[in-house]
Write a structure and sequence with these properties.
Layout: H1 2-14, H2 21-33, H3 43-55, E1 65-72, H4 88-97, H5 102-110, E2 112-120, E3 131-132, H6 150-169, E4 174-180, H7 184-196, H8 200-203, H9 212-229, H10 236-243, H11 246-260, E5 265-267, H12 270-282, E6 290-292, H13 301-308, H14 324-328, H15 330-342, H16 346-349
Parallel strand pairs: 1-2, 1-4, 2-3, 4-5, 5-6
Helix pairs in contact: 1-6, 2-3, 3-15, 6-10, 6-11, 7-9, 7-10, 7-12, 11-12, 12-13
């Protein structure tokens, strides 16, 4: 079973098309012909160039947008790493499904659909809008043993890929990553430590708002998890299995699936960036498909993004998760494409070029 899934995953990774550099250069030349000083729209011009290169279209229609919110629980919560109890995970999933969370509000404003996936919640959930793809009922406590088996991890990645494929068939061409899982900043910090070389003191943040004593405990938990499991930094699947969560693995699949479908994917904060790091280590060709939305308040986030080679669009001092920062950045993507399509050129407007 594991070998079959691995073969399927390898085929999907190998199907990711290279960046269309020629189309990207066309977009850049068109941008330089518009009635503005070259480069004066900053990151908006870079976004338009990236989207052209990813899709192979000068002005891609990305009006159909989906934010995939993966939800899963973490056994490491036993170690007191969060300010909130684990029961909040299923409660927030229901909130997403009922349209009452921050990501729902922002998605409605952006004209995006929220797709909530139960991939590892430690509760029985039923709702007509829920995508139920449970791989585990919460992970094991990584401070004592591997969080997941390698097979569970591969299956969770494949869930993310399949959810993206279903949304593409429904017309989605632009994705965002979101997550819900009490304890997942602890897992993310542990993965960051192993894959980037940051120390736990640099990678562990405040998560849901813990105090100094809890922060020091969280650092100790990350150190113990790494010592107990001895993850192999050269094997991203091993690191993800031993220290990760089902929802993080699911987001790895979302990123790989979007790239394989030729769709750009906007990543949210710290947890989503960890998924992007794992995805880019598994398949370097995914990197052009990824857009970093915002710089979160988690202290290791900037160094994490830098290790992938990404630069965030905005910094609003957010640390909510859910996909909120990523969905906000849908507006900047819309703006970048509209500027490309609707601005006059120097020639069409009869304006002298400098």
């Amino acid at each position: 079973m594991k070998e079959k899934v691995y073969i399927e995953l390898t085929e999907i990774i190998n199907s990711i098309k290279p960046f269309h550099e020629e189309t990207a250069q066309l977009a850049e030349r068109h941008s330089d012909s518009l009635t503005k000083p070259p480069g004066s729209l900053g990151k908006l011009e870079a976004i338009a160039r990236q989207l052209a290169g990813v899709t192979g279209e000068l002005w891609p229609n990305l009006s159909r947008k989906s934010v995939i919110v993966m939800a899963g629980d973490h056994g490491v919560c036993e170690e007191g790493v969060s300010a909130f109890p684990q029961a909040v995970t299923p409660q927030m999933v229901i909130n997403f499904l009922n349209g009452g969370a921050a990501v729902n509000v922002l998605a409605r404003q952006a004209g995006a659909e929220v797709v909530c996936v139960d991939i590892g919640v430690n509760a029985d959930l039923e709702h007509d809008r829920l995508v139920s793809r449970k791989i585990v009922r919460g992970t094991a406590n990584m401070a004592k043993q591997p969080a997941m088996t390698r097979e569970e991890t591969l299956q969770a990645i494949m869930v993310g890929i399949s959810v993206v494929k279903e949304q593409v068939q429904r017309g989605t061409r632009l994705f965002a990553t979101g997550e819900m899982g009490i304890g997942n900043t602890t897992s993310s910090a542990a993965i960051t430590t192993v894959l980037t070389g940051l120390s736990p003191e640099e990678s562990v943040g405040r998560g849901t708002g813990i105090n100094d004593a809890s922060w020091l405990n969280k650092i100790d938990v990350v150190k113990r998890a790494i010592a107990v499991n001895k993850p192999d930094p050269s094997d991203p699947i091993d690191v993800l299995a031993k220290l990760g969560g089902a929802e993080i693995a699911g987001l790895v699949g979302v990123i790989l699936g979007a790239a394989a479908s030729g769709c750009p994917v906007v990543i949210d904060g710290y947890i989503s960036s960890v998924a992007a790091l794992v995805a880019s280590r598994l398949a370097a060709q995914t990197k052009p498909y990824i857009l970093a939305s915002h710089l979160s308040q988690e202290q290791g986030h900037l160094r994490l993004l830098e290790s992938i080679g990404l630069s965030p669009m905005i910094q609003l001092e957010m640390r909510l998760g859910e996909g909120t920062g990523a969905v906000l950045c849908f507006h900047f993507i819309d703006a970048a494409l509209l500027l490309m399509q609707e601005m006059a050129t120097f020639e069409s407007a009869g304006i002298s070029k400098g």
